[in-house]
Amino acid sequence: MSLSLLEEMNQKASDSGVALAVHMDITWRCNERCVHCYLDHDGKGEMTTDEIKGVLRQLADCGTFFLSISGGEPLLRRDCFEILEYARALRFNVKLKTNAVMIGPKEAERIKKLGIAQVQISLYSHRPEVHDAITKLPGSLRRTINGIKLLKENGVKVSVTNVLMKFNNRDTKAVKQLAQELGVNYVVDPTITPMLSGDRSVVNLGINGKELEEFFRSQDLLEDMAEACLPVSEAVDDDHLDGYSCSAGHTLAYINPFGDVYPCVQFPMPCGSVRRQSFRDIWYESSAFTTLRDIHIRDLHTCSTCSHTTYCSRCPGLAYIQGDMRGPSYQDCEKSYARTGVPSAAMLRNGGQLPVATSAGLVQISRLQ
Amino acid sequence: MDLTEMYLTQSPDIAARTLGDDTVIMSTIDSTVFMLNSVGTAIWKSADGTTPLSTIIHESVCSQFDVTDEQAFADAKEFIDKLVGHGILSISESPVPPRQAL
Prior knowledge:
The complex is a heterodimer.
Chain A: H1 3-16, E1 21-25, H2 49-62, E2 66-70, H3 80-89, E3 93-98, H4 105-114, E4 118-122, H5 128-135, H6 140-153, E5 158-163, H7 172-182, E6 185-189, H8 209-216, H9 225-228, H10 238-241, E7 252-255, E8 260-262, E9 272-273, H11 279-285, H12 287-293, H13 316-322, H14 330-340, H15 345-348
Chain B: E1 7-10, E2 14-19, E3 22-27, E4 33-36, H1 38-46, E5 48-52, H2 53-65, H3 69-85, E6 89-92
Antiparallel strand pairs in B: 1-5, 1-6, 2-3, 3-4
Helix pairs in contact in B: 1-2, 2-3
């Protein structure tokens, strides 16, 4: 896809306040139990087929173009293909996130016929004993690879995501090679998202310290080392300070299987429920979205003066989970430090050490009743 | 073949959305992206398989954009050829039944 057209489209959406991209989990049920997963797997109260179709019509009416259908494992819903077909009939650019375990010849052919833009699949290792230990589903690596092959045989664009943890950190090059052999795109991600319940214990599964430094210096893994290891900056211009950390709540929204709306899957600030209000009313009128959109980089009490501010991948959702969406996300401070060796402002305020992240009182992320 | 009496149909193999006056279209076949301006969007929205191009030009373009039918048709021809070439639009001599409404 042409980058300039993408940028033009994003700019138009940003200028006009359109939710250009929506991530929709249609279920949290899953046939895997990945050790690092941020979800519980409760399926009670999921939106019905008709409810989801109604939300999709609203999203199309609001201008949403990019739609990620995810879970849980979305194919566990018997109506998954009905939902995908409906979404395609509404002319969304649809990305399907799945573990591919349930993709057989018929499913692969149907995904191709539906014109799904991309299927995104998690692949943790080239070794069954590692991948299957992470997913806790025996045989999952074999079945996932089989699903990938079937999708490729049908000409479907596939991208595998390799989430890095202590268990699989040494397998990254082999996983990348496997992806190349399979003819699929490879994305590596060192971020572990805390559980939506507020439990941060899964974050400890991620790589840190020396391992994170090595990751950011691995030419084999990172396509663009110059971008990955951008330097700290002395001068920060006003355009940057007037900007935002990311697109969450500006051109991106997340809807969970129960109809609750959030800025992003990694930003569990409740903004409303499509079971009570229209998506349009939530997107344009909710106080949560309005508050979020008023926060510019210059309003961040620590990060606005940090030497990393221009190039930091600060996630406001992770900061929110820590209890302050105007504050730093220590996971991103850790990454910035690993990239550059220069302590962040939050670290300097803590005697040069990375502060210990805690979760806020997570009443703030309880499911809407 | 008189192009003005042909019928245009939007391909099902696309993703599309109108943002303001403009429309973004992406082919799911080859991932080509098009951004249509307001005139292109007017033609695109009218490409329902049942309205002849002459009517589209007259009612959706000339009435809104202050151009003659001849000017509008000349500009539209290049635009249509390009979209047809990428499989974004198809063109037929007879009307195409509309897809079942959602």
